[in-house]
Amino acid sequence: MTACRVVVVKDTAALAHAAAELFVKLAAQTASARRPFHVLLAGGRTPKALYALLASGAYRSRVDWDRVAFFFGDERAVPPDHPQSNYRMANEVLFRPLG
Question: What is the sign of the dihedral through the CA atoms of 50, 55, 57 and 59?
């Protein structure tokens, strides 16, 4: 069993950076083991800063995106182009910028 850690950060920007660094680290570990990196995407507004950061130039090149498999952890019962759609947010902020 993996031990839990509590990480305290100053604000949401620091949270996004800490999460992005952890994402890069875990993606590299699975890539070195030649395994796919399965990622469950959260919904709502909270993860938006993380998704944007991962798609930015500072992080985009640090991940082997061909090994990443994304899954949605939750989705609202709305069309995919609806303003409250978690898919829409992830598509606009993460998937499209990654290409």
Answer: positive
Q: In 3-state terms, what secondary structure has residue 61? A: coil
What b/e readout covers 16-52, taking b as 16+ CB neighbours within 10 angstroms? bbebbeebeeebeeebeeeeebeeebebeeebbbbbb
**pLDDT 10s digits, 18-68:** 999 999 999 999 988 888 999 999 988 889 999 999 999 999 999 999 999
Which residue ranges make up each domain of the chain? Answer: 12-98
pTM, rounded to two decimals: 0.87
Residue at 4: amino acid letter? C
Asked whether the beta carbons of 50 and 20 are under 8 A apart, the reply is yes
Residue entry with tokens 């798609």:
55
- Structural class in CATH, domain 12-98: alpha beta
